[in-house]
Amino acid sequence: MGSEKTIKCVIWDLDNTIWDGTLVEDREVTLKEGIVDVIKGLDNRGILQSIASRNNHEDAMKMLEKFQLNEYFIYPQINWGNKSESVQTIIKSINIGSNTVAFVDDQPFELDEVKSVVEDVMCINASEYKEILDMPRMIPKHLTDDTRRRREMYMADIVRNKIEEKFDGPQEDFLRSLNMKLTISYIQDGDLARVIELTERTSQLNTTGYTYTYDELNELRNDENHDILIIGLDDKYGTYGKIGIVLIDKQEKVWVLDLFIMSCRVISRGVGTIVMNHIMQKAKDAGVVLQARFIPTDRNKMMLFSYHLAGFRLKEQREEYQLLENELKVIQPKPDYVELHTEF
Predict the structure, then answer these.
(1) What is the per-residue pLDDT for 216?
(2) How far apart are CA 258 and CA 249, in angstroms?
(3) Residue 19 carries which DSSP code?
(4) Bridge-partner residues for 54, per DSSP?
(5) CA distance 282 to 331
(6) How far is Cα 110 from Cα 51, in angstroms, rounded to an integer?
(7) pTM of the model
(8) How high is the pLDDT of residue 204?
(9) 267 by DSSP, 3-state: which?
(10) Are the CB atoms for 287 and 342 separated by under 8 Å?
(11) Residue pLDDT, tens place only, 102-117
């Protein structure tokens, strides 16, 4: 597989791709042989799926409902525009890198049109649909509980976002209406695969871009000088799953944040700030200096900005990373719209 990323989302055409026939001409179409197994197989692996099809939206959705497949596709783009525009809309809606997206279509012209605009997208001719589950990029390295319910969590996000768009009032009032429960726990055996998955899948809100092996994490977990914390979030619409990781190197007089990761899905919930302030307060109570290791990548500038907002300043520029330090003078209290459960 080389440096190619594991696919996070497969975007399907409809006519002569998921089904045989052209809907606007045939009115009655039949599913491709074995296509349901492919769609369900990808879903079980936590690979999201969507639609980019030139069709009448209402008719196409009715047909997907008839085949009981509509629930498998998030942010479907069924219109008469360019497929590349539809693919870009889906990528933006899900908030993932284009190099983790595959597009399946029966028309070489459509595949070329998408590739010419979004060159990082993996383009697959629909004639190869039976081989998709065996393609290396379609096989995640780790399968976790969060993996298997990824679509469910994204669909809950869609409901939340629609309600938020219509909410008339301050952002804080909307957040309060969610009844959020935030948990900070020490990782257990069953969490290690999810930790690895988060380090591999999260690039924007990742302070180092470094990924860990199972053995490395297990060794750190059993090291008395290190704490690995896993962050979970739930609200009245369901669970967000495990959405964050913090790795702390705890020395006698200094704590160093070796890794801080948050899922992009919760950035608007202010969860990262709450976790950071909790750690800052713990460091202050322990009478230690709090530092953080930051390795710039082409995608994680937002995390450096978050560190700066929290009061971290550059202490030393080292060859491989920036060492930041926080004087712990300003620590924001936990907002009342979040219920915090913590072992740390």
Answers:
(1) 83
(2) 7
(3) E
(4) 79
(5) 11
(6) 14
(7) 0.79
(8) 61
(9) helix
(10) no
(11) 999 999 999 999 999 9
Q: Which pLDDT score is estimated for 210?
A: 72
3-state secondary structure of 285: helix
- Residue 122 CA to residue 94 CA, distance in Å, equals 17
Token pair 């929290």 in the structure block, residue: 310
For strands 289-294 and 322-326, give the pairing: antiparallel
- What whole-number distance in Å separates Cα of residue 136 and Cα of residue 143? 15
Please state, in angstroms and rounded to a whole number, the distance separating the CA atoms of residues 288 and 121.
47
User: Residues 230-248, buried b or exposed e (16+ Cβ, 10 A)?
Assistant: bbbbbbeeebbbbbbbbbb
Interatomic CA distance for residues 72 and 67, integer angstroms? 11
pLDDT tens figures, 183-229: 999 998 888 888 887 877 665 667 777 777 778 888 888 899 999 99
Count of all residues that appear for the chain in the document: 344
For the CA atoms of the chain, what is the radius of gyration?
A: 22
Question: What's the CA gap between 193 and 99, in Å, rounded?
Answer: 23
* 30-31 vs 19-20, strand pairing mode: antiparallel
Q: Which residues of the chain have pLDDT under 70?
A: 1-3, 201-205
Beta bridge partners, 15, equal 19
Q: Is 111 exposed, middle or buried (0-12, 13-18, 19+ CB in 10 A)?
A: buried
Here the tokens at position 8 are 């996070």
According to DSSP, the residues that pair with 185 across neighbouring strands are: 230
Residue 99 pLDDT? 94
Say what the pLDDT of residue 194 is: 84
| Residue with tokens 């440096």, as numbered in its chain | 3
Q: How far, in Å, CA of 184 to CA of 97, rounded?
A: 28
| Count of CB atoms situated within 10 Å of the CB of 145 | 14
Burial of residue 69 (CB within 10 Å: 0-12, 13-18, 19+) is buried
